[in-house]
Write a structure and sequence with these properties.
The structure holds three protein chains of three kinds. By secondary structure, chain A is an all-alpha fold. The radius of gyration of chain A is 12 Å and the shape is globular. Chain C has four helices and five strands. Chain C has a five-stranded parallel sheet. Chain C is globular, with a radius of gyration of 12 Å. Classes of the chains: A mainly alpha, B alpha/beta, C alpha/beta. At the A-B interface, helix 3 of A face helix 1 of B.
Chain lengths: ~100, ~130, ~100
């Protein structure tokens, strides 16, 4: 499976995303996707579906907290799942653009 | 992800939009800049003047012109703690628009209120 | 609460100057630059508003280099003062904040 990405590893064509593509993108980040990862990816994809923008870290934390509970709505939790920069890494694996409002 | 710099008093910064949504990239640039600026915990506000009130219209579907919908993204502003959102009264009325036509709640301002808003800022960024 | 407005579009083709004048108030200054200087012409579509606002205490300037470049020095509304580049800098510094209309 060879899906074109930009030089930072983000999908060039967002329509090409599938769960299998996500596995592959995660592998490139040395992440093996578990249920805990998938539920965060779902939250992010739902956010993007609604607002057409990849959220900055602060907003991702808030969204995960609202959707999955306050224990999961924490930077440290997301940091463990998607090191070293959760907002960027989750966006990448979820097949979404790089959050450009996130430095 | 860098630490947000801590500053003594937040600066009042007004983002002024003056252009319609898709004729140039300015409207999108303004929104990107605004969302980015929100990370710095300053006192941000945003004003839609003249043609820019068209940015706020519901039901935008720019897919076929290869653009992302501004109307889809603008409602994230309150989530980014940007709640001082203003639109020019005369710009809306000239174009036959009312606040019910808009994708997010805005405060409608007359000319005097706009002058006062601008005058109270530490900086104004025009797009 | 002093405010400097800069305008760089001609009022003969754009409503940029008109939009600016619509929110101008006493103690504001308006500096016309680039093609904006055409707004200072006696034949300007905004002449009436400029004269009215000027009487109310709004100050009007046109950037001298842009005026000369366009050969319109002799045809300007009396209420508009020519400004050098140094005057431009002084206006920016003297006012609390600048709004650029473009």
């Amino acid at each position: 499976m060879n899906i074109p990405t930009d030089k930072n590893g983000y999908l060039l064509n967002l329509e090409q995303w599938t769960p299998a593509v996500a596995e592959q993108l995660a592998k490139a980040e040395d992440i093996r996707l578990s249920d805990a990862h998938w539920e965060v990816i779902s939250v992010l994809r739902a956010f993007y579906q609604e607002y057409s923008v990849s959220p900055a870290m602060r907003i991702l934390v808030k969204q995960v907290g609202m959707a999955l509970g306050t224990e999961k709505g924490k930077s440290i939790y997301l940091m463990q799942l998607f090191p070293p920069s959760p907002a960027k890494i989750v966006s990448k694996i979820a097949g979404l653009p790089r959050p450009d409002n996130c430095f | 992800m860098k630490e947000t710099p801590t500053t003594a008093t937040p600066k009042k910064i007004l983002f002024v939009n003056t252009k319609a949504p898709y004729g140039s990239s300015l409207a999108r640039d303004a929104l990107d800049a605004l969302l980015a600026a929100s990370a710095y915990e300053q006192d941000l506000s945003v004003l839609f003047l003249g043609e820019a009130v068209f940015q706020l219209l519901r039901n935008q579907n720019p897919k076929d012109i290869g653009m992302k919908s501004l109307a889809a993204t603008l409602p994230v502003l309150p989530m980014y703690d940007i709640t001082q959102i203003y639109a020019q009264e005369s710009a809306l009325s000239t174009r036959g628009l009312s606040i019910d036509d808009l994708v997010l709640p805005v405060k409608v301002l007359g000319a005097d209120e706009i002058a006062a808003l601008m005058g109270s800022q530490g900086a104004i960024l025009s797009f | 609460m002093s405010l400097l407005h800069t305008v760089n579009k001609s009022p003969f083709s754009k409503d940029t100057l008109l939009n600016c004048l619509a929110i101008c108030q006493a103690k504001h200054s308006v500096l016309l630059i680039e093609d904006g200087v055409y707004g200072a012409l006696k034949s300007s579509p905004c002449r009436e508003q400029i004269e009215q606002l000027s009487a109310m205490g709004v100050r009007f300037f046109a950037l001298s280099a842009d005026v000369s470049a366009r050969g319109i020095d002799e045809n300007l509304i009396a209420d508009v003062t020519l400004a050098s580049d140094q005057d431009f800098v002084n206006l920016v510094v003297k006012n609390n904040v600048t709004q650029s209309w473009y």
